[in-house]
TrEMBL record, chains A, B, C, D:
Family: Belongs to the aldolase class II family. AraD/FucA subfamily.
Organism for this UniProt entry: Streptomyces rubellomurinus (strain ATCC 31215)
Protein's name according to its UniProt entry: L-ribulose-5-phosphate 4-epimerase
InterPro entries the record matches: Aldolase_class_II_sugar_metab, Aldolase_II/adducin_N, Aldolase_II/adducin_N_sf
Top EC class for this record: isomerase
Catalyses which reaction(s): L-ribulose 5-phosphate = D-xylulose 5-phosphate
Gene3D superfamilies: Class II aldolase/adducin N-terminal domain (3.40.225.10)
Biological process per Gene Ontology, one example term: pentose catabolic process
Cofactor(s) it depends on: Zn(2+)
Cellular-component GO terms for this entry: cytosol
Length: 216, 216, 216, 216
């Protein structure tokens, strides 16, 4: 059940230290319907359960649920409306990724693990205020046609996308991991670049060969 | 019961890594009475319980409790005496916030999450010795008329206030989180500023709209 | 049983924060046989058990197991094929070690704990693409004749070796620990060198005297 | 029972992240006897119990216990032999403290919490090889007549002393905490000094007034 999956995946954000208090959220598209499941607003991660997840339509209007949905619901909904291939969206303020985002600087692709997962730098999206479609549009305009499933929204945080919610959570975990490693590497010098042909080759292999056959 | 709430909230300080050994404390105003509930001095977080919390009057004198109250009680009491709108106070030596405090430098508001919670930079209060009302006066003089619920006391640590103890704990958690992110961001360049009008707009929305209706 | 040992040792990688998601692996040589036991590919650390470990021959071909083996199996197998004294291999993308690896910079031996465990700087191996024996050859060419049981593969991560899998895990834990400490030390100045004769003396004592007699 | 106390206190080193693998140890003087209790060498923290603690005389010779004592026993024993007021000794390679130690640089006293606990900078002791009394002598020569219960042994790690083992563990925890905060503070500028008279006043109050009457 998709409510349980979305509820459980929030614990991965906690486990990997990507969120504090109530400041991050996971959503999933309900397969075959114009609906999404998302975290309730302002509820702590300890209190999340399949039952208190919120179901919204793709305009972000609540269809089912007793609480208000995450205040980021409009951004999630915009992504689902305009990127039909996306089945999951994650938003965090994870520390190192936000440190890059506050400078409006992309994370350069200098690790083979980045080439695998992101296939390129992790790009920066525009500064955008909450309240209308600005954030959603900034996410989609940045990620459409980009290999990276993660975008650093300037002065704000990270949004990641995936074929399902688990893939989007994985991208959020990896985004913080590589943002941290590259940050630390640059503190004492310049990381060595990886040739574009090698990035392409690593990304192609990882996206097509890695993992268990049945798991992708 | 307010003793239980204060006792339990200390575990949030532990969970978010804001304290080591016995070096941080939470207090709450007893609603409708000139009393506060606070941590006993020098007792480890593992041993806290509703029963060993200390009740003091607003001059910091013990009214109920077998232990001595936190050595920071005078500062908490001063805040409750002079800011009647405050229902909770938290004190920590959280790492990144103290790193700013040791330089006597305010944390600039360069993240939308900071605009939400703090509405401005996190300001620095004066260097003050323990033993009289100097610390309390420094806190109140800095925070009165400021949007931020957190102050960095120079060379010392963080004090946060809130309408209740939970809100003050949240401010302490968010203070460390943004102090860390902005610290890291500045290590590799200058974070981009957020326009004052955007800070105002974000803060207004967050303080008035965010979260569950019943929860605020 | 060696499957259990390999399965359990992955939990040490988790405990010491050396891995996120599925990005690290432990293997062991099966004593007296031309076989190795390794993690299945793309399976989370929570789901590992003795039963789902994969047994491969020393060309990396699966002999027993329902999943595909780790995508790093070829590198592990190359090490076992060419270094008969090696009984365990570990691969991680641990943060600080990768920060050095991304710059292609060796970690200098400026801590007595490094002299103990590594006996020298932790060296850098070549940039190598996955898919053939390039990574394995890079590991072996760098570590053969070197005291260090750890190599930082450029832009990639850490490989460690040991007389058994536990020793290789220990080397991976210590590698990240010293990579972090030396990184931090260099942020504020230059660490003091340790004289080569002292490094030699420390390493000799540690490799021959330290620990319980029966445990080495 | 003192074996239990020493065994349990090792868990505090783990809890506060001061140690990895087997690289840190706690000892206590047996009250009224020329004996000390210390960790066995090379045994993991999970396996420690009151039963496998080692009892040694003040020359470091084993009096009771089936394992070899910590390889740092000679240093602990030297301290007990020459500083009769010391009831507990702790040794760690905690990260930030070692980062200062690798540069041979004292941690300046720029936090009120440092003035409380250390009353001064945390000083650096000499580089010394393991194997004779060099390390013990370096510790004692540095700490005798110094307010600080912690010394950073150059290129090596931290030794702390206390009236009992718990006090020494507290000093080790606080040492890493302030070493980290001051490190971070200095990354972005210079911490403000605290006047010597204020350090004196804070230290005097803390060492004589703080905490529960019965607890000190």
């Amino acid at each position: 059940m998709i409510r349980r999956q979305v509820s459980d995946l929030h614990q991965e954000l906690v486990r990997y230290g990507l969120v504090v208090w109530t400041a991050g959220n996971v959503s999933a598209r309900v397969p075959g319907e114009d609906l999404l499941v998302i975290k309730p607003s302002g509820v702590s991660y300890d209190e999340l359960s399949p039952e208190n997840m919120i179901v919204c339509d793709l305009d972000g209007k609540v269809v089912e649920g007793e609480h208000a949905p995450s205040s980021d619901t409009a951004a999630h909904a915009y992504v689902y409306r305009t990127m039909p291939e996306v089945g999951g969206v994650v938003h965090t303020h994870s520390t190192y990724a936000c440190a890059w985002a506050a400078r409006g600087e992309a994370v350069p692709c200098v690790l083979t693990a980045m080439a695998d997962e992101f296939g390129a730098e992790i790009p920066v999206g525009p500064f955008a205020l909450i309240g209308d479609d600005s954030i959603g549009r900034g996410i989609v305009d940045t990620l459409r046609g980009h290999r990276s499933p993660a975008v650093l929204m300037q002065n704000h945080g990270v949004f990641t996308i995936g074929k399902d919610a688990r893939a989007a959570v994985k991208a959020a975990v990896m985004c913080e991991d590589v943002a941290r490693t590259v940050h630390l590497s640059r503190q004492l010098g310049e990381p060595l670049p990886i040739a574009q042909a090698d990035i392409d080759s690593l990304n192609h292999r990882y996206q097509n060969v890695y993992g268990q056959p049945q798991a992708r």
